[in-house]
Design brief:
This protein has 228 residues and is mainly α. Helix content is 82%, strand content 0%.
């Protein structure tokens, strides 16, 4: 149990360190090439590539776990993580902000960022929106498997549902600009995706079945987790 806790802590530390850094470096590459106005398109595309990796892993993982212990897919996941780490080391940072980054004082930067947040109403609302809706949608990851189990779906098929979950995010991530046009604006799309996410939670709670779990995965997971 102690080893499990230590592993969870190290894993969480790694995720926290990379969180936002990958998107930031991609944005700086775009800025260096004068393409920052197209950031939505490229960040969405990067997210869909990440989701494609999760989809392949989910399909493999459900097959592996149906034949071996749960520790086996966890152990095997260290291989792509190690490869990703090696690739990350080979990336040469854009020259746009390299010199400025050397002069940043962490706590001063944190204080300035907090002040900036307090002064901007729209940014505060977006932050609150992200915390509430994205956090709720994040629970889809932990809820859909026990839900499937409750409606009689065998564990070997979980990977297929995870693949559908991820595929929904890929399709949405690839079409942000189109979705904004459909709903009239970015604000309109954010409003729709928040309401749709909430309604999907209500539906699966009131009428639990394989069909409603699928809707829950595609709508709450697809829209909720890709909207940030």
């Amino acid at each position: 149990l102690i080893i499990f806790f230590v592993a969870e802590f190290i894993g969480a530390l790694g995720l926290s360190l990379v969180s936002g850094a990958d998107e930031a470096i991609l944005y700086e590459f775009l800025k260096e090439k004068g393409l920052e106005e197209k950031s939505k398109k490229y960040l969405g595309r990067a997210n869909s590539f990440k989701m494609a990796g999760i989809m392949v892993g989910a399909l493999m993982g459900s097959l592996i776990v149906s034949k071996f212990e749960l520790s086996v897919p966890t152990l095997l996941s260290s291989i792509p993580l190690a490869i990703a780490g090696i690739i990350a080391w080979t990336v040469i940072e854009p020259k746009v902000h390299t010199k400025k980054l050397e002069k940043i004082e962490v706590f001063k930067n944190l204080k300035n960022g907090y002040r900036y947040l307090l002064k901007h109403k729209i940014l505060r609302l977006l932050a609150l929106d992200t915390i509430v809706v994205w956090t709720a949608a994040y629970f889809v990851i932990w809820l859909y498997q026990p839900m499937l189990e409750n409606v009689g779906v065998a564990i070997v098929y979980f990977g297929l549902f995870q693949a559908a979950f991820v595929l929904a995010q890929i399709i949405i991530s690839h079409n942000f600009e189109f979705l904004e046009k459909v709903f009239g604006s970015a604000k309109g799309y954010l409003r729709f995706s928040a309401i749709a996410t909430g309604l999907a939670f209500v539906l699966v709670a009131v009428l639990p079945s394989v069909f409603t779990v699928i809707i829950f995965i595609l709508v709450a997971g697809g829209f909720g987790l890709s909207r940030r």
